[in-house]
Design brief:
Helix content is 18%, strand content 27%. The chain has a domain of 144 residues: Nucleoside Triphosphate Pyrophosphohydrolase. Strands 1, 2, 3, 4, 5, 6, 7 and 8 form an eight-stranded mixed β-sheet that branches. A hairpin with a 2-residue loop joins strand 10 and strand 11. The radius of gyration is 16 Å and the shape is globular. The chain contains four helices and eleven strands.
């Protein structure tokens, strides 16, 4: 079942974020980044053909037998924008990501998230569209990421920057409520559980997976559960 993109959803998410005591990270040794969790409308079936070159994008990454890495059959109703990063980027190439990046000097997290949204996917939204923020997440690569939740106000029309983004997908929020989500597994390299969020025919890992899990738990369900201790897979540590 898809989730209706309407004022009731917008007000519920704003209320849940506004009543949450946000967990923030203050560590001068870490670089600060912001990502935009952009909520938009979508139509069922508009994503049946995945435009990304999946074989090149996977680049030898091991895949479970029941998955092939394609982001198909995920659209419909209220959704969020999800990017495939370009494979030629110097860091975190060929990974799933929300629009975002480092803060410029003097920027707030909201300003940075909205700027990166415009630069990466060609969507320009005002600060009045921001519903709130999720908890900070510290990455293995030395960043603190602040997720900024933004109400897109409709379907929008992303135009990804080809040097950074291969494609932009509208992923229905109902995908976050799948019976097989979230998944947790253990790895020998860390005592912390690795989180996996199934979307389409792939698995989304932290930090993006942790942010999406809190979007579900806090934004949709009003649960204040922490996600900052959820681990990234080893391939994302660099």
């Amino acid at each position: 079942m898809t989730i209706s993109y309407d004022a009731a959803l917008r007000d519920r998410i704003r209320h849940n974020l506004g009543g949450h005591e946000r967990r923030s990270v203050t560590d001068p040794s870490r670089r600060h980044a912001a990502v935009a969790v952009v909520l938009v409308d979508s139509e069922v079936g508009e994503d049946r053909v995945d435009p990304a070159p999946v074989d090149d994008w996977i680049a030898g990454r091991p895949m479970p037998e029941d998955l092939d890495g394609r982001m198909v059959d995920v659209s419909g109703g209220a959704a969020f924008l999800l990017c495939r990063r370009a494979s030629r980027l110097s860091t975190h190439s060929a990974q799933w990501a929300l629009p975002g990046g480092r803060l410029d000097p003097g920027e707030t997290v909201v300003e940075a998230a909205l700027r990166e949204l415009d630069e990466e996917v060609g969507v320009r939204l005002p600060e009045s569209a921001v519903l709130g923020m999720l908890d900070d997440y510290s990455t293995r690569s030395g960043y603190v990421i602040t997720p900024v939740v933004v109400w897109g106000g409709g379907r929008l029309d992303p135009t990804p920057a080809p040097d950074e983004v291969v494609a932009v997908y509208r992923v229905g929020l109902h995908q976050l409520l799948r019976e097989d989500s979230p998944r947790f597994l253990t790895i020998p390299e860390s005592p912390r559980p690795v989180v996996q969020i199934p979307l389409g025919n792939d698995l989304i890992h932290a930090p993006t997976g942790a942010i999406l899990l809190q979007l579900r738990w806090l934004g949709l369900e009003g649960r204040p559960d922490a996600v900052d201790e959820l681990e990234q897979p080893v391939f994302a540590w660099k």
